[in-house]
């Protein structure tokens, strides 16, 4: 017998972002094993996960930012700018530490600029970060003079390519951080403040949470993480390409939307489900590469995925809005005493 107020099975499944991410992962792996025989080789898995490292760093920060109501479209360009600044500073000084500090400074400045435009001047965050997307990409081309900048450090490259079996150690570290952040968002006071800021700023203010400061910190966190990801990518490969970071924002936010986050802020996703969605997209793109398919088809796939993720989020909201509320349990009453 069905309990009153219980949702149909398909509705409950649709409203679980974690289930959606797991199903996408299962489908991606099944397709890879069926259509790309070389997928399961150690070399391919290690290479694919290594390429996932920089986007995963950005994704982890962006998942926290979207929980707090901040979506930054400039992450790909800031990643590319951070890479160019790191490589240029490293070449000039001979010190990778100086390169990292320079890139961190650029990331911090980009985050403060985005946050200032959005929170102080009232510019819609997506417009503010879209402007930063264009500006950071142009600045990277000016600094690099439109060419790649070499910055190879054998020790760093070797460390970042260290593996346990086919699994790169840095990716395992990011995975561990995703698990920790997921637990903090759901079970800590800090996570409660973050979710309150992303859910309803008025309610957050009544609870004594300074939503403006929280969001400014999230803008800075996202841009700084993107700059760090740019440094990591250059450390791995030994050079900063002019096109580095292009399309990263679609890749990252496609995974976040699939995982249940909303561009307007909040949602029911977690850093861990977002990481799983990003891994699934990476597997699908890896199938394209192994099958020798044209690279533009991968861009089409990302675009379709993004549209599908937005549609899925809209369906989730509609389903939740029209689902019947469960009836409250009847209160226990004391036995009536006869008059």
From TrEMBL:
It is found in: Cell membrane. It holds the Pfam family BPD_transp_2. The keyword Plastid does not apply. Its main location: membrane. Keywords: Cell inner membrane, Cell membrane, Membrane, Transmembrane, Transmembrane helix, Transport. InterPro entries: ABC_transp_permease. Residues 318-339 are annotated as: Disordered. The chain crosses the membrane at residues 20-40, 52-71, 83-110, 117-136, 167-185, 216-235, 250-265, 272-289, 295-315. It is a multi-pass membrane protein. PANTHER family: ABC TRANSPORTER PERMEASE PROTEIN YPHD-RELATED, ABC TRANSPORTER PERMEASE PROTEIN YPHD-RELATED-RELATED. This is Ribose transport system permease protein.
């Amino acid at each position: 017998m069905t309990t009153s107020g219980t949702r149909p099975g398909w509705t409950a499944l649709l409203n679980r972002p974690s289930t959606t991410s797991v199903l996408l992962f299962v489908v991606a792996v099944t397709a890879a094993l069926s259509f790309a025989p070389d997928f399961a080789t150690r070399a391919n898995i290690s290479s694919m996960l290594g390429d996932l490292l920089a986007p995963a760093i950005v994704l982890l920060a962006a998942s926290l930012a979207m929980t707090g109501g901040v979506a930054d479209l400039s992450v790909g360009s800031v990643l590319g700018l951070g890479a160019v600044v790191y490589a240029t500073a490293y070449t000039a000084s001979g010190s990778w530490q100086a390169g990292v500090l320079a890139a961190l400074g650029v990331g911090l400045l980009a985050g403060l600029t985005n946050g200032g435009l959005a929170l102080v001047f009232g510019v819609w965050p997506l417009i503010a970060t879209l402007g930063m997307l264009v500006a950071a990409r142009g600045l990277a081309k000016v600094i690099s003079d439109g060419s790649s900048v070499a910055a190879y450090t054998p020790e760093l490259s070797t460390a970042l390519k260290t593996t346990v079996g086919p699994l790169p150690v840095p990716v395992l570290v990011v995975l561990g951080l995703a698990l920790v952040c997921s637990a903090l968002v759901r079970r800590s006071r800090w996570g409660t403040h973050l979710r309150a800021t992303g859910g309803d700023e008025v309610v957050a203010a009544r609870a004594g949470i300074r939503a403006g400061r929280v969001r400014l910190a999230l803008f800075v966190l996202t841009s700084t993480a993107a700059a760090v990801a740019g440094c990591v990518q250059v450390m791995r490969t030994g050079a900063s390409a002019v096109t580095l970071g292009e399309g990263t924002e679609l890749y990252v936010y496609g995974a976040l939307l699939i995982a249940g986050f909303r561009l307007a802020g909040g949602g029911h996703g977690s850093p861990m489900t977002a990481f799983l969605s990003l891994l699934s997209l990476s597997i699908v793109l890896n199938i394209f590469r192994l099958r020798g398919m044209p690279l533009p088809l991968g861009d089409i796939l990302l675009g379709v995925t993004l549209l599908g993720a937005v549609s899925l989020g809209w369906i989730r909201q509609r389903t939740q809005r029209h689902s019947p509320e469960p009836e409250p349990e009847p209160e226990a009453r004391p036995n009536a005493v006869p008059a």
